[in-house]
Amino acid sequence: MQILTQLSRALAGLQPLSSTPSSCSASQDAVSRAVAIVDITQTMSLFAVLLDNHAYADLGRVFTLNATADFNATGIPVCEGLPAIIERLEDLRDAPSMMAISTQFVEVQLPVAARATTYVTGNMFTPGWTEPSFTEYGKYGSHHPREGKVLGSLMQFIHRYITDFVLTEAGWRVDSLVAVGWASHLETVEPFNSCANIEKAVFDRWESRPEYASKVKSEL
């Protein structure tokens, strides 16, 4: 990413000469946009990696110092500034997660601004946390207490991030993030340390519903 940053800065600083054909200017713009798109998509992918690794101190590689972030969470105000963003995400330190970046679309507004739309899916285990709504889920067989060993919730989430980027001396950074989406709790489970435990939790959910169980078994 350092090479991309240097190239982005160099291309943004180039000014075509008056005698340069318009085709050369258009080619320069095309290269600048291509480099910016790669750098920005890399930055969003880095965001997911840092969250999964709980490397919150490195979020300066993603956000500007004065960035704002609206995670669209009930009762959580908009985070104003990088320190506030880090403080908010620090609440997830004890929650193992697996985030995946899917569709990304970047609109570059040369020379130093861009907007990215990024779709994010993932799973998160929240130790020791269940919501009252699990009582309702239990009526339909989605909640399985295991003799007092229920220690947390497995949550699946789908978000769309709308991010405004600016080109800084350090590279492209998020200056504003707005999350749009929803999350649904799949299961209350014991802590997991492998994908097999996640699969078991989801299978148990299907197994509890006779109309799904036979179909699932036939496809395994």
UniProtKB/TrEMBL annotation:
Pfam families, sorted: SnoaL_4 (PF13577)
Domain SnoaL-like intervals: 36-176
Signal peptide: none
Name of the protein in question: SnoaL-like domain-containing protein
Organism (species): Penicillium atrosanguineum
